Amino acid sequence: MQVKEELEYLAKVKNMLAGKAQKYMILTMGCQLNENDSEKLCGMMEEMGYTKTENLEDANLVVFNTCCVRENAEDRLFGKLGEVKKQKEQNGTIIAIGGCMMQEPHIVEKLKKSYPFVDVIFGTHTLHHFPKDLYESIQKNGKIQDLLDIDGEIIEGLPIVRDHSIKASVTIMNGCNNFCTYCIVPYVRGRERSRKPEDILAEVKELAEKGYKEITLLGQNVNSYLRVERKQGLVSEEQEIHSFATLLRAINKIEGIERIRFVSPHPKDFTDDVIEAIRDCEKVCKLIHLPLQSGSSKVLKEMNRQYTKEQFLNLVKKMEEKIPNLTLSTDIIVGFPNETEEDFEDTLDVVRKVKFEQVYMFIYSRRVGTPADKMEGQIPEEIKHQRFDRLKKLVEEQIEEKNQKYVGTIQNVLIEGESKTNPEYLTGRTDSNKVVICPKQEGRIGKVIPLKIVSEHMWYLKGE
Ligand code: SAH
Ligand code: SF4
Ligand code: F3S
User: Fold this and answer.
1) Is the shortest distance between the CB of 334 and ligand 1 below 6 Å?
2) Of 181, 244, 337, 427, which cross-links 419 as Cys (Cβ 3.0–4.6 Å)?
3) Atom of ligand 3 nearest to the CA of 220
């Protein structure tokens, strides 16, 4: 759906604020999809006449874009709200909260009871209502709650202000139908629905024209792109783009784009056509994020991941055989209910065998409303932390070993800009997403440059 009516409120707010210098601050707490939503919120706020500030004291409007995938995200929001309350009392700052956490009724209750000073609450399905909600809140000087429990439509045509000028994220689908038993995402983001191929291609072409070099395709389960629509008969295999593999092939042809990445695919949907598209498309980076979650077939079953340890390892083997220069990254959860020492050893075993380029490690966090939260056999915090530390140690050893292998090699590095910590250096990334810094030279930003790696440091490499 193309937004139109909602966007009329952009001008209405702008008129209302006319002449007054207004600033906004945004705090983004979640994943890349959440960040992409924040870029749209920034786009809307800037159209309304707000300018961005990183300084809470200067802000007339503070927006929180929340996440609820783990408990620490919640703690962060409630901690910050205390700070912002003081600002509101002193300066009349408007406070708006949106994002995934607002789709959880118990959180909204808590907000209304303990943080009644919040002005606007909106959810994942009502992002595009933000200008209207803000307008009504300012005009009526009242509290607005705008939440929908249904699966929102795909919204096209929102203004956007992007965080980078070289690389950009493009959401290709919303929602998730997998219902992994630990995960809150399907409840707060709704059912899986894909954007139309033509809308995605138009966005990527526009980015290429603006000089963007790298795009990351986003979705909770990207390799089931258009699956629901195929089942519903809305898309047929006769159409050029009817699947994730065909989408990759089409984007690979767009001139100006040099690199294509995507997160996250699901191992169960990693079909041969996807593997072949990755192999054939020279712009698709050969670092693939393949979320393992656990190495124990028993735990995987309890998690409803729909693959076993052996199937995961076989998939890795097949991908390694078919895709030259493949590297892998992954997500792992430790301390899922009933995870035994033996189960955890299975996870370590897979990590030892696959030698991931990067491992994002998480301690299992109980989420209200998910099946795993109701399971008996929750693991004591102390054991979860011990296992986390053991996994971390193994991962760090592997990363060090991997880093050493880079030294002396030539890597193609997309230069993203000046190093934030040292202005005499430029920073960029390899195909495998490793950060590389190199001495500054004019005219290199936005280019893919071959660099010789001269030294390694835990989180980055140095090149010449
Ligand atoms: N759709 C993506 C990402 C989902 S959220 C995927 O399936 O890979 C990102 C990661 O957070 C997950 O991969 C998982 O490792 C982690 N995660 C999700 N729910 C969690 C929970 N309740 N406790 C701890 N980690 C969790
Ligand atoms: Fe959550 Fe699983 Fe969906 Fe990923 S695939 S968002 S982990 S339910
Ligand atoms: Fe968090 Fe929502 Fe992303 S719960 S991980 S911000 S989809």
Assistant:
1) no
2) 427
3) 7
Buried b / exposed e along 103-142 (16+ C-beta atoms within 10 A): bbeebbeebeeebeebbbbbbbbbbbbbbbbbbbbbeeee
Whole-model pTM above 0.90? yes
CATH node for 410-463? 2.40.50
Identify each DSSP E strand in 107-258 by its residue range: 120-122, 144-146, 167-171, 173-174, 193-194, 214-218
Give pLDDT, residue 224: 96
Cβ(291) to ligand 1 under 6 A? yes
Residues whose beta carbon lies within 6 Å of some atom of ligand 3: 30-31, 33-34, 67-69, 100, 184-185, 188-189
Nearest protein Cα to ligand 2, atom 1 = 183
Q: What is the pLDDT of residues 438-464, one digit of tens each?
A: 999 989 999 999 999 999 988 899 999
Q: Where in the chain is the domain with CATH 2.40.50?
A: 410-463
Question: Which residues of the chain does CATH 3.80.30.20 include?
Answer: 167-405
Tell me how far the alpha carbon of residue 343 lies from the centroid of ligand 1, in angstroms.
18
Q: Which residues pair with 460 in a beta bridge?
A: 457
